[in-house]
Amino acid sequence: MTKNALEQLRALSVIVADSGDIEAIARLKPQDATTNPSLLLKAVGMPSLSSVVSEAIASAEGADADARVADAADRLAVAVGKEILSKIEGRVSTEVDARLSYDKDASIAKAKHLIAMYEAAGVSKDRILIKLASTWEGIQAAKALEAEGINTNLTLLFNMAQARASADAGVFLISPFVGRILDWHLANGMSPVTNPSDDPGVKSVTEIWNFYKQHGVPTVVMGASFRNTGQILALAGCDRLTISPDLLDEMAAMDIEVPAALTFNGEVTPLPTAMTEDEFRAEVAADPMASEKLKEGIDKFAIDQVKLEDLIRSHEAFVA
Fold it and tell me: Is 28 part of a structural domain of the chain?
């Protein structure tokens, strides 16, 4: 029996669900899954999660309403993560509050708190990836967490400076974005892409993947933020690909051959000298796409975190 495009892709790359939709995850059976405040916001409205949401909110603790809201948000992230883990064999990525993206110490503290909550719920840390924005502070927080055996996922990654600094930090996984890079270029005058290999987002992830392979970097490269199946197929062979349920369904319905687009059989050479903070900041600042999309992504996740907290305050299970 001929395999569909998704089945063939699974043989080339580990598939990760970019969703908090428990039913879709159970149906599509990805290896891993990843969430963020935007996806958690959607998850709160899902009937299948109503009891999980109510229990997490009702059990929140704190000295005042604000503290209980913050605790409820963390409990909700962990509860949804635990539900997802019951449907998959691998790991789930749980995101640190985006408002902490420029605070190394606060990010470390929040990450450890989330891991402690998972462990209290019976989930070992080896099934969790702590998700942090790829700011300098986020990358340094990840470095400290990795040294303590807490694996991390560096998200909102748009250029080579962020990828190099993440490699220097020895992080477990990076999530270089594809679709948001294309969005920026289209919004800034680029003509629509007809060949996926010419897509600037695809080019960026390919460059990062090749750099990691050429220098023997063990960090997992997980392409993210896809807008269409063409982008996905152009990165077949990337270590992991995190894909929305809609695009996974579309891939499952495709009857085409899926060859590996990314392959490496070359010589491995040592990494260049580690980036300094000044070099990192200068290179990100010199790349308007990366600097704008990084800030925009953090801002959007922060806004959705506030929306989530407002939803918690108004939930019938919340005790003011």
Answer: yes
Give bridge partners of residue 16 from the DSSP assignment: 32, 242
List, for residues 156-174, the tens digit of each pLDDT value.
Answer: 999 999 999 999 999 999 9
Query: What is d(CA 32, CA 12) in angstroms, rounded to the nearest whole number?
Result: 15
309: in domain? yes
Indicate whether 250 belongs to any domain.
yes
> Which CB contacts under 8 angstroms, 24+ apart, belong to 268-271?
268/213, 268/214, 268/215, 268/216, 269/214, 269/215, 269/216, 270/215, 270/216, 271/167, 271/168, 271/215, 271/216, 271/217
Rounded distance, CA 283 to CA 294, Å? Answer: 13
What letter does residue 47 receive in the DSSP assignment? G
Using the predicted structure, report yes or no on whether residue 136 has a pLDDT greater than 80.
yes
Q: How many residues in the chain?
A: 320
Q: Is 192 exposed, middle or buried (0-12, 13-18, 19+ CB in 10 A)?
A: exposed
Give the residue numbers marked as catalytic. 131
Average pLDDT along the chain? 95
Of the two residues 50 and 113, the one the predictor is more confident about is 113
Which DSSP category does 275 fall into?
Answer: P
- State the residue range of the domain holding 183: 5-314
Question: Which pLDDT value is given to residue 1?
Answer: 58
Q: How many domains does the chain have?
A: 1
| 204 contacts 181 by C-beta, under 8 angstroms | yes
Give pLDDT, residue 42: 84
Phi, psi of 217 (to 5 degrees): -75, 120
CATH number at residue 257: 3.20.20.70
Is residue 285 situated within a structural domain?
yes
Q: pTM, whole model, 2 decimals?
A: 0.95
Q: Which amino acid is at 277?
A: E
Q: 198-249, pLDDT tens digit by residue? A: 999 999 999 999 999 999 999 999 999 999 999 999 999 999 999 999 999 9
